[in-house]
Amino acid sequence: MRYCAEISYLGSAFCGWQVQPNGYTVQEAIGTALQRLFHKKTDVTGCSRTDSGVHARQYFCHFDADTNLPVERIAAALQFYTPKEIAVLKVTPMADDFHARYSCTGKNYIYRLLNAPVQDPFEIGRAWWVKYALDTEKMNEAAKAFLGTHDFSAFCAANTSVEDKVRTIRECAVKDCQNHTLEISITADGFLYNMVRIIAGTLVSVGTNEIRAQDIPEIIESKKRAYAGITAPACGLYLNKVYYN
Predict the structure, then answer these.
(1) How many CB atoms lie within 10 A of CB 237?
(2) In this structure, what CATH number is given to the domain that contains residue 169?
(3) Which of 5, 14, 48, 209 is the most exposed place for a label (fewest CB within 10 A)?
(4) CA distance 3 to 93
(5) Catalytic hit among 43, 51, 176, 189
(6) Contact 102, 230 (CB under 8 A)
(7) Domain count, the chain
(8) Inter-residue contact 245 to 99 (CB < 8 Å)
(9) Would you call 176 a catalytic residue per the annotation?
(10) What pTM does this model have?
(11) For 168-179, what is each residue's pLDDT tens digit?
(12) Nearest to 127 by CA among 202, 190, 177, 67
C-alpha cells in the first residue's frame, strides 16, 4: 500500500532533503527509519528538494510498504526511529497513483528576517539577520510586481537545467511580526531553484533602497539573473504549506 507521511523538520541539522554522498539528509533519515520499522529497504519520495539549511513546517513524502501495523500507529512507530529534528505528524494511506511531488498543485514558502541592530542568538540558523533598517512599505509595493504568471529566469540560479521558467505566483507579501522579525510569504504553483531566496534578497535590496520598487517589472522582463538581488541565506527559508487537490 502507498502511504503519505506529513512531517516537519529543522533544516540546520541536515544537508537538505535529497540523499547525497557527502552529507546527512532528511531523505536518508526517513529512509533509514522506514528500513528499521519495516525490516527492509523502503524508498521514500519527497514533495520538494529543499537545500541544506532550509526548514520545513509542512512537508510530505510517500513510500510503499507491506505491513500489518495499523495505520494509526505508523506515525508514532516511525517517529521512534527518526531524529529529534524531524517530527512525524501524520501517516495516511493513499491511492497507488499518488505522488508527493507530482500530485502537488502549489506551495507556500515563508522567508524570515531578523531586522535588528544586534543579532539575536536564538534566531541564528532560523532567520537572516539584516541589521540595516528596512522600508517594509516599499518592499510590499515591490512584492506586488511578482504576482501573476511570468518567466522568472532573473530569479533563478544561473546553473539550473530547467528550461521552462514560467511560474504563477498567487501571493507575495511582507509582514511585520514580533521581536523585530519580518516574514516574506510567497505562494505559487511551483518554484525554480533558489527562486524564493533570490526574491527575498531582491526585496531586502528594495527595503534598503539599493533597488527601486518600480524597477521590479523591468527586472522580471529582462530575464537576467544579474539584475536581481542577492540570493538570501538558506537559514531564513521555510517550506510552510504544500497544496494537493
Answers:
(1) 26
(2) 3.30.70.660
(3) 209
(4) 4
(5) 51
(6) no
(7) 2
(8) no
(9) no
(10) 0.95
(11) 999 999 999 989
(12) 177
